[in-house]
């Protein structure tokens, strides 16, 4: 979505980050897209709910509903923080596995990781 919902002429920028407090992990995806008005933010997590026509932005309206349902089935949550014209930050929160249930190579991983991607303009096409 961060690649698709951008204003014409804007290069999409997507930042993926994660953090943990020892009990929960939060995975965030932040973008420089068109943003979402506060009154529409709960709608985007409903099945087949779309804020724009398929001609403007293709899609089915299923993606975020699946993300939220998946997070909830694992005891977590999903949400968004956004302002129209200022991009969005989507997040999921998941409970960490109890000690002893994490493979050793993963248990020593850093608590916070960040990645940013600048996508060439040709990749941001609506086709």
Low-confidence stretches: 115-127
Major sheet: 5 strands, antiparallel
Per DSSP E runs of 2 or more residues, the count of β-strands stands at 5
Strand order of the largest sheet: 3-4-2-1-5
Folded structure, characterized:
It contains two helices and five strands. It has 127 residues and is α+β, with helices and mostly antiparallel strands. The protein is globular and about 50 Å long. The protein has a five-stranded antiparallel sheet with strand order 3-4-2-1-5. Strand 1 (13-20) and strand 2 form a beta hairpin.
Give the helices and strands, then pairings.
Layout: E1 13-20, E2 24-31, H1 63-73, E3 77-82, E4 88-95, H2 104-107, E5 113-118
Antiparallel strand pairs: 1-2, 1-5, 2-4, 3-4
Q: Could you write a compact summary of the structure shown?
A:
The protein has 127 residues and is of the alpha+beta class. The protein has helices spanning 63-73, 104-107; strands spanning 13-20, 24-31, 77-82, 88-95, 113-118. The protein has 2 helices and 5 strands.
Output the keywords.
globular; alpha+beta; 127 residues; five-stranded antiparallel beta sheet
């Amino acid at each position: 979505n961060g690649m698709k919902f951008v204003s014409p002429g804007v290069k999409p920028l997507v930042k993926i980050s994660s953090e943990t407090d020892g009990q929960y992990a939060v995975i965030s995806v932040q973008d420089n897209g068109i943003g979402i008005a506060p009154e529409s933010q709960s709608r985007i997590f409903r099945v087949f709910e779309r804020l724009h026509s398929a001609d403007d932005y293709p899609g089915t309206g299923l993606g975020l509903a699946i993300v939220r349902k998946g997070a909830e089935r694992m005891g977590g949550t999903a949400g968004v923080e956004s302002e129209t014209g200022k991009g969005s930050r989507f997040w999921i929160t998941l409970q960490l596995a109890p000690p002893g249930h994490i493979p050793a190579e993963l248990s020593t991983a850093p608590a916070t990781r960040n990645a940013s991607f600048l996508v060439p303009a040709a990749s941001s096409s609506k086709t």
